[in-house]
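Protocol step 6 of 9: fold each sequence in the batch and record its structure tokens directly after the sequence line. For illustration, a two-sequence batch is reproduced in full.

Sequence one:
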Amino acid sequence: MTRVQTLHVTTVLATLLLITIGAVVRTTESGLGCPDWPLCHGNLIPPAEKTAIIEWSHRTVASIVGLLIVASTVVALKAHRNDRLVLWITLPVLPLLAVQAWLGKITVERELPPEIVAIHLSTALILLALLALIAAYSFIGTDRALWGDQDHDGLLRVSILAVVVTGAVLVIGSYVVATNAGYGCSSWPGCTQAQIPFVDGARLQHIHWLHRITVVLGAAVIALLAYFVLSEMRDPDPLLRKAAHSLIGLYAVQILVGALNPWTDFSVAAQVAHLAVGSAIWALLVVTTFASQYRPETDLSRPAHRTTRGRTGASA
């Protein structure tokens, strides 16, 4: 990889790490470990207390990741300022980063309202998606080409559907954690406290069942995407085949980790792994969606409609 590609990939991985640490903060109930912002108990260094250290660590990593995001964005804009596609992908990043920092502040000041917590994660996922696209673009390059065939147009529609459904699964899952609705069902795959979805049980069980049902929908769209790539496309790109296999494997792991939550009495490790794997699936889906339309122009294995920097905006 080039230095620029390394920077972009590192930024994506660091953002995934930050989301994972955020899950640690939520599952250990450390969100108010530092009751003020940006200081912690009025100091730069937190007191020697578990929740304060966890929350302070999250803020520290967030600062480092923020610098990486700024560097990655500036490099992309400087190198490709004449490419409309890059501008559309990159320009929202820094404003979203500012919004994300503000949401972190509001989350603490308002003492972790579930709706703000869910919005906070949603913004993080949008940032992750944009950073993943910037990284993917650095590998596709300026001389990218449109696949320009019906197979890839169909794959684009399926990929977008998978991105939307998976994003909904993650946001609802965040709301489940924020409202403690995960504890509403102590068994899996059934729910001892509410055997019939949305009929038995109370509000927490309804929220929990909503998450489980969206997970099933996510499995369906992932399976549809994989089926399309592996069975319906005449000659899929090897990278798309690998992405399809990876998505199937990751989603299977995600379902298992989800089951481990009630099986392990909602251990911190199971809850954190659940969000980490889900975020990785989301990022891979976003990159797959991008790859469904563009390929490097140096790959001349099949015809493609060329798109250059001057025409990218119209082609995209």
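Sequence two, same batch, same settings:
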Amino acid sequence: MSACPDPPPPGGVSLRVLPPLSLYIHLPWCARKCPYCDFNSYEAGAVPEEQYVAALARDLEQAVPLVWGRKVRTVFFGGGTPSLFSARAIDAILGTVRALLPLDSHAEITLEANPGSAEAAKFRGFREAGVNRLSLGVQSFRGDFLQALGRIHDDREARAAVEMALRHFDNVNLDLMYGLPGQTVEAAREDVRTALAFRPPHLSAYHLTLEPNTLFYRYPPPLPEDDTCAAMQGAVEEELAARGYGHYEVSAFAENGARCRHNLNYWQYGDYLGIGAGAHSKISFPDRILRQVRQRQPRAYQEATAKGAPVQEEHEVAPGDLGFEFMMNALRLTGGFPLALFEERTGLSRATLEEPLAMAQRRGLARMEGERLAPTDLGRRFLNDLLQLWLPS
């Protein structure tokens, strides 16, 4: 068994400062479930928009005591496909947020959208409702790859949606995937070049993986070999670096000033309140860190919220798990993290890092740069091997 950090001293968690707080809002419906998707999402007939918005309002109102007085720095509408909801519904949700929580005047407010033409027409309404960052699930600009992924949009709709998104939003993220069925290294490179022609402020590039409980997992498509996928990743990173995009997290690239503040808060072990079906929360207190999961099924969630009990699971993070939890997030950052952040967010001494860090350095998986711990290129490639060094006994 690899070395692991010592447990914290008796008495459990002890935090001097509470971390920044984000709000995640889950809208779980999609026009069609993609065969690779393992998110908590459901195919929509008619989305019960009014009832669900009311349930979110009740959920948030019941959760306010957990975060009383704490300012919300970022808001993220995830799914599912949040852009299936009307701009009026998004406006109503944000109105409730502002009424119940102190929302930072410069809060980053992100909404995920898909490039279907009917949804793209809503972009102006989302902007007027208060959304100031749009994350567009393009995945590919080639029709054959989109078809293989089971996407409902084609390459023409993808381009039109990107143009419309950039017309209404200064801050736009484009999601791309590589390692697709039948994809070559040059095809992956061409997808990135097409995306870069639009000059989006932010780009996320994900390797397609076969997740349990998905159609692709049960009926795997023919995927490129591992070495080919590694070459695709290298090509993607090369193209983005050449255009000046900073590679700040495993799958995230941004122009100066355009890093996703919401996701950075996750990776830096910040706090987040999650509302909506299946949403997760991590809430810190001076003496404990609480994790919650809401009811997963939308109907069960709405019924439970009406009874004042939307939370399905709840537990406090064991002090011995804090180091691994922190590392599981922070080691995704290519620039790593300052040791002071580890101490602040976990309440643990940096001395608990010494033994696993020494082993990581011997294996070439991590490095120290002054007071900053960062994964090496090898550590990013074999991130699970690096993380295992911090697993609790």
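Proceed to step 7 once all outputs are recorded. Observation for sequence two: The radius of gyration is 21 Å.
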